[in-house]
């Protein structure tokens, strides 16, 4: 496999869209942190993960752009076209990275080194720098591309062995979102290199880790991640759409792509399969036939399929708009220009005219590689993350109506009590806790944490069997065995308790001004209570309060 990687592509695309100078430092921001930057920005001390304000402080002349996957895919299309014109059979892994078979290219150009040089020249012709990696397997070729290396046949495992195990989670086209947790676990187990992880047997990995660890282990051993004989998809899984009127704008492409993605995944679900390689075909009014293959590390979802359709059509339409702009200037230089043609290279709303070279009349989706639907875990409502996406959109809508601070989400924080371990952050802000939860917290409430935390702390009465109120002695013990709990007009008999645990912190707080504070867990016994069985009590100011409810 041969992989073409364009380093720092989100930053390169942002610089190209802004028409920034080559010497200008550029950084792409998402969630107020740098996710990509150019080499000039790195020379100024900019790094991924840096906060926006700190990055601007290190480089005042920094050009900051927001993360935009649509922009990245649209501007990557000329690179894909240049590579495909040199060596056919290109598969897009993501904007900024593509793959193809190295065997045919090596035979045609004479060697793998010659093929790599020709591809570098082809990409440089469109004004983009790239690196080439060649290896037996796709995952190994991705690592090789990031190091501009041609790995000899059969030496993939030897090439990967000295790399840090964190590299397994570095490239999103190879790693699932939960791969970072696996890398952290491997670090804590003392497996710091990919070779250390590869030394484990497949039985040891499969019996101790999850499914993603098995994929990562196969990647570390440089063995095929997918079986050599992929299941051929049935012909009836192909879906197509006749565009009437023809697609001329990106918003029309997004709408049609969403409909077609839904239809495709309905057929895939009925056949109990999921798609991992998808071909997007398009035909124009002029009779042009366009085709592009998208390969994914995980089975495609309806949302990811719709995104790739939108990106691809956006790239095709934009390229044709730019071609018409160049053709107009050439004709203008010869004195034969049409005054209604676009005059600039930057496509605007006026550039999407009804010319036959831009309108797309047919769109077809063809899955060329499918896997069992067991590889795709559906969400609760039939889709992957659809419930979370609906909830997020609803919260954003509420936020737009009531104000930015009206919707807040909880972030796990550090602390001893359940209320302290929750940091409320405004929706959309970076989820930064008030204290580090990874630090040791002596005296922290034992697990499990209560399911519901009450911030208003309603007052209750805790009594012994003879009705005597119960408090805590100077030695941190109950004055008597708890037997009854009174909450408002309700009373329950207690069947067990744990604690109390004296609180040495918050002695400066006003609510803890009289005496010391303590926590206790009590278990109630009542036939009329179906779910509530235990409470977390917080005692201060000579009274007990309910801090949390267990279910």
UniProtKB/TrEMBL annotation:
Keywords: DNA damage. Pfam families: IMS. It comes from the Bacteria. Residues 333-353 are annotated as: Disordered. Residues 22-142 form the UmuC domain. Poorly processive, error-prone DNA polymerase involved in untargeted mutagenesis. Copies undamaged DNA at stalled replication forks, which arise in vivo from mismatched or misaligned primer ends. These misaligned primers can be extended by PolIV. Exhibits no 3'-5' exonuclease (proofreading) activity. May be involved in translesional synthesis, in conjunction with the beta clamp from PolIII. PANTHER family: BLR3025 PROTEIN, BLR3025 PROTEIN-RELATED. Belongs to the DNA polymerase type-Y family. This is DNA polymerase Y family protein. It comes from Nocardia terrae.
